[in-house]
Amino acid sequence: MIARLATLGALIAVWWYASLGAGPLGVPGPIEVIGALGRLVASGRLATALTVTLGSFAAGGALAVLVGVPLGILMGVRRSIGLAIDPFMTALYVMPFSAVIPLFVLWFGIDELVRLVFTFTFTLPQVVIVCYQGAKSTPTTLVEVAKTYLASERQIVWKVIIPYEVPFIFTSIGLGVGLAIQAMVVGELLIQSVRGLGYLLQFAVASFDLATVLGVILVIMLLGAGAVSVMQRIEMSVAPWREGMSAGGGGSDG
Amino acid sequence: MAEPAAKIVVDGVTKIYRTRKRRDSFLGRFLPDLRPKIMELKAVDNVSLEIASGDFVAIIGPSRCGKTTVLRMMDGLIFPDSGQVLVNGTPVTGPRAECGFIFQDFGLYPWRTVIDNVAFGPELHGVPKNVRYELARKHINLVGLKGFESAFPHQLSGGMQQRVGIARMLASEPEIMLMDEPFGALDALTRRTMQFELIRILAAEGSATSVFVTHDLDEAILLGDKVVIMSAWPGRVKEIVPVPFPRAERGEALLESKLFAELRHHLWVGVHEEQLASEA
Ligand SMILES: Nc1ncnc2c1ncn2[C@@H]1O[C@H](COP(=O)(O)OP(=O)(O)O)[C@@H](O)[C@H]1O
Ligand SMILES: [Mg+2]
């Protein structure tokens, strides 16, 4: 905690030093950025932009997790389905999003729907691939133990593979959150919307209001970090056995 | 029903592993592959064994000679290519309730507490929670883990983790206990403690039939009524050595006796020959 605060202090100090003696188009300092953020909050523009952007982005990300986690597990459990779908997920994963955005805008407009679809397609392959790898990597011994106790295939899925997946599910959601935020920003800029955070950013850039630009970027970063740390908290409470597992998994002799 | 002649019969069993070669490179998928498609490895060759009800049989032999393979065929996790395995007089077609298995790497579920690991078998078969917990507690006490019911496996030492493995097997009340180097992952001191613990636990549990794979000669003599020496690859039965010590005498003192030393030497010579053969 102290180390983190020290890092934060150092970053702010560097930032502040870099802003010294800069002209109107140089680096705005911390105080100017906070002032710009204050004005955004006071005028209600930040709140409006956030609700527009976050709603559809969260819906798209959540949908990707809701579809991706079961799909990834199914692919891991049924090898033939895994082999059939895997290449398409990889293809989706490497698809150049900035290039397909114009198509999406044609098909889905420039409002909530296109944001949702965009976030969904951007996030889904990551979630699926992580969960698929997780289910595939279930240690054979753990499956054989269940077989020895005469578990049915259904029981092997519910009592071995899915519990083993839990940390992978959280990793995939964490990745999903990060990706959805990137998707949101990229999407907002490319969609040329007239509402939302992207519009706020573009408007600020166009009016050379660099303090506001930095302020909005700061808000986005805080949102991402906050979301990821909430996920970690939830993981700790859902999977307490994960604590202390990182050091190799097994206990020591004694 | 008449008692079958032997609890476990391994009748002329041969096991060949076939592994499909992996085409690991991307380009390799498009190029003709000139190597044979499937690699065959004869792991055990014409093995026959009879294990009587209540017997404790230890299997020793150089590593990779097929000990695990034989044990897994008894449990119905894998099947022979020729010959057959009979348990209680009927051919093994898959895992069955009579057999319990202990894995070298414990095979505990890290997300389950000790008691939920031990109660796993009964849980699968729909035994209500209070009944299966009572059964689990009884066996947790027996293996000396009272007070650790709600610990997670990663909080326990290796020796304690295998105690959980033993309790989990006992909670399903198997007639036959199959153990694959159960103490192989433990340090020497813990291993010795666990050997005496297993003698105590088995005495308390009564008359189960046990097959125990190990590469520790002392362990084979301490625990076994018979020691089967397997030959190097491909695995065959080389010799079956009876252990003359009554179970009640198997303690610290026995380890120091002259007879024990002679028997250990005999086993060592037998295994060592095979060890050399497998390295040749
Ligand atoms: N699943 C498997 N697929 C292919 N080969 C295997 C497999 N399991 C074991 N083998 C091979 O069979 C031989 C015997 O293995 P194993 O029964 O594990 O020996 P041991 O337990 O005596 O060390 C070894 O050469 C091993 O590499
Ligand atoms: Mg082995």
Give a summary of the structure in a few sentences.
Chain A is mainly alpha-helical and 254 residues long.
Mean pLDDT of chain A: 81
Please tally the β strands of chain A and state the result. 0
CATH fold descriptor of chain A:
MetI-like fold
> Number of folding domains of chain B?
2
| Tally of helical runs of chain B | 9
Rg on CA atoms of chain B, Å: 20 Å
Per the principal axes of the C-alpha atoms, what is the gross shape of chain A? Answer: globular
* Class of secondary structure makeup of chain A: mainly alpha
Distance between the termini of chain B: 50 Å
Secondary structure category of chain B: alpha/beta
Strand content of chain B: 15-25%
The level 1 CATH classification of the largest domain in chain B is Alpha Beta
Architecture of chain A, CATH level 2? Orthogonal Bundle
Query: What is the tally of beta strands of chain B?
Result: 10
Low-confidence stretches of chain B: none
CATH-defined topology of the largest domain in chain B: Rossmann fold
Q: Largest sheet of chain B, order of strands side by side?
A: 6-7-8-3-9-10
Oligomerization: heterodimer
Largest sheet of chain B: 6 strands, mixed
CATH superfamily placement of chain A:
MetI-like
Largest interface: A-B, 27 and 34 residues
3D structure, described in words:
The complex is a heterodimer of chains A (about 250) and B (about 280). Chain A has about 250 residues and is mostly helical. Chain A is about 80% helix and about 0% strand. In chain B, helix 4 (about 130-140) packs across helix 5. Chain B has about 280 residues and is α/β, with parallel strands linked by helices. The N and C termini of chain B lie far apart (about 50 Å). The mean pLDDT of chain B is about 85. At the A-B interface, helix 7 and helix 8 of A face strand 6, helix 3 and helix 5 of B. Magnesium ion (MG) binds near residues 68 and 180 of chain B.
